[in-house]
Amino acid sequence: MEEAIFTYVPMLVMPFYGDQLKNARIVENKRIGKLVNHKPVLIKEELKTAISEIVNNPKYKENIKKLAQFIKDVPMTGLETSVWWTEYVIRNKGAKQLKNLAADLPLYQYYLLDVVGFLIFTAVLLITVLTLFIRKIVRYLKRSQVTSRYNDKEKKHQ
């Protein structure tokens, strides 16, 4: 797509897999090309119509020129940018300030395994405490029911 944009060539896009359909829709929405769905039997007329529309409609060429000018309007080219950053690293003796601090972390910290472990431990502890608490309450309620029945029986016998 980049080559077509930089050379002002409207596109006829036929997506097959992956992100190609998304890119084809972008091409069609920006009116810099036409989307043609591939089918087991591609209709010749459909393809002819799409090609003639792209070739004969000047809007496609105008839109792609505008987009190319927008993309090309940058302070430095890609090569100039890479040269500048290479010189920057040389000037700053390796540019240690640009090094990602995560490179020095142990893997368990990088993947937050210590945090995950703590959260799992806390969840298990909370569930255990709640289970024990609920069991105590159930036992207490059962005892109070047994005691109240026993007291009711004694009152009847008296």
UniProtKB/TrEMBL annotation:
What the entry lists under Pfam families is as follows: UDPGT (PF00201)
Q: Does the keyword Oxidoreductase apply?
A: no
Where is coiled-coil annotated? none
User: What's a Gene Ontology MF term here?
Assistant: UDP-glycosyltransferase activity
This protein's source sits in the domain of life called: Eukaryota
- The molecule here is called Glucuronosyltransferase
Q: Which family, according to the similarity comment?
A: Belongs to the UDP-glycosyltransferase family.
Q: Where are the transmembrane segments?
A: 110-134
What keywords were assigned to this record? Glycosyltransferase, Membrane, Transferase, Transmembrane, Transmembrane helix
InterPro entries associated with the record: UDP-glycosyltransferase, UDP_glucos_trans
